[in-house]
Amino acid sequence: MVRKLAAGNWKMNGTRAALEELQALAQAHSDPAVDILICPPATLLMSAAELVSGHPLDIGAQDCHTAPSGAHTGDISAPMIADCGATAVIVGHSERREDHNESNDLIRAKAESAHAAGLTAIICIGETLAQRDAGQTLDVIADQLQGSTPDGATGVNTVIAYEPVWAIGTGKVPSLEQIGEVHDFIREKLTARFGADNVRTIRLLYGGSVKPANAAEIFAVPNVDGALVGGASLTEADFSPIIKSLE
Ligand code: PEP
């Protein structure tokens, strides 16, 4: 059994006052039975990492550049993220694929850069509603998974997050059968590429409108090893029950 992972993506939310929620989360989970990761905006990375130091919580970033340093105004690199005390980075979130035109090749390069810096890359994949309606879901997932995942992926350095674009921030959630179908498919594809031993430890997260009310039933779906949570990770009151549902 892999250790489950509750990951929170704060997106472009939170000033220093939001660290109170992180503090409350750390206090509420002094000995969690699952891994807990919070990905605040880059402006809070260092303070967040300092705050959770000594607590069983990890901090991650929401994106990184492919290069370790250089003339890339406004970007931050994987070694900089690691230097802040963070241990993970989300790459290929659908909001970045859409807002910043990120391709699978670019996302794979970002994941490789994360690996080289000793970070875990949380690689996001997921279909749009139009793609689902056109019956293309598994083709899109196969393409994004193959194209965005580095050859050096292991259970230590890589997590895959299945996030249907149409479920993110919308309150719409796929049926449990739909989630199960895609997670089983991702597991099969990873097994074919990386072999059964390694792939069992690559965690597969579901993301898209996970809330305290629906978390337990989603986590009971086979091959769901945790969640990547947006809106409901912003407060301890919402995120704690989701974490508890995983335990
Ligand atoms: C996300 O941003 O990764 C996400 C899943 O958002 P939400 O939980 O708000 O749908």
UniProtKB/TrEMBL annotation:
<dbReference type="GO" id="GO:0005829">
    <property type="term" value="C:cytosol"/>
</dbReference>
<keyword id="KW-0413">Isomerase</keyword>
<dbReference type="GO" id="GO:0046166">
    <property type="term" value="P:glyceraldehyde-3-phosphate biosynthetic process"/>
</dbReference>
<feature type="binding site">
    <location>
        <begin position="230"/>
        <end position="231"/>
    </location>
    <ligand>
        <name>substrate</name>
    </ligand>
</feature>
<dbReference type="InterPro" id="IPR000652">
    <property type="entry name" value="Triosephosphate_isomerase"/>
</dbReference>
<dbReference type="GO" id="GO:0006094">
    <property type="term" value="P:gluconeogenesis"/>
</dbReference>
<comment type="pathway">
    <text>Carbohydrate biosynthesis; gluconeogenesis.</text>
</comment>
<feature type="binding site">
    <location>
        <position position="169"/>
    </location>
    <ligand>
        <name>substrate</name>
    </ligand>
</feature>
<dbReference type="Pfam" id="PF00121">
    <property type="entry name" value="TIM"/>
</dbReference>
<protein>
    <recommendedName>
        <fullName>Triosephosphate isomerase</fullName>
        <ecNumber>5.3.1.1</ecNumber>
    </recommendedName>
</protein>
<feature type="active site" description="Proton acceptor">
    <location>
        <position position="163"/>
    </location>
</feature>
<keyword id="KW-0963">Cytoplasm</keyword>
<dbReference type="InterPro" id="IPR020861">
    <property type="entry name" value="Triosephosphate_isomerase_AS"/>
</dbReference>
<comment type="subunit">
    <text>Homodimer.</text>
</comment>
<keyword id="KW-0324">Glycolysis</keyword>
<dbReference type="InterPro" id="IPR035990">
    <property type="entry name" value="TIM_sf"/>
</dbReference>
<feature type="binding site">
    <location>
        <position position="209"/>
    </location>
    <ligand>
        <name>substrate</name>
    </ligand>
</feature>
<dbReference type="InterPro" id="IPR022896">
    <property type="entry name" value="TrioseP_Isoase_bac/euk"/>
</dbReference>
<keyword id="KW-0312">Gluconeogenesis</keyword>
<feature type="active site" description="Electrophile">
    <location>
        <position position="93"/>
    </location>
</feature>
<dbReference type="InterPro" id="IPR013785">
    <property type="entry name" value="Aldolase_TIM"/>
</dbReference>
<comment type="function">
    <text>Involved in the gluconeogenesis. Catalyzes stereospecifically the conversion of dihydroxyacetone phosphate (DHAP) to D-glyceraldehyde-3-phosphate (G3P).</text>
</comment>
<feature type="binding site">
    <location>
        <begin position="9"/>
        <end position="11"/>
    </location>
    <ligand>
        <name>substrate</name>
    </ligand>
</feature>
<dbReference type="GO" id="GO:0019563">
    <property type="term" value="P:glycerol catabolic process"/>
</dbReference>
<comment type="similarity">
    <text>Belongs to the triosephosphate isomerase family.</text>
</comment>
<dbReference type="GO" id="GO:0006096">
    <property type="term" value="P:glycolytic process"/>
</dbReference>
<dbReference type="GO" id="GO:0004807">
    <property type="term" value="F:triose-phosphate isomerase activity"/>
</dbReference>
<comment type="pathway">
    <text>Carbohydrate degradation; glycolysis; D-glyceraldehyde 3-phosphate from glycerone phosphate: step 1/1.</text>
</comment>
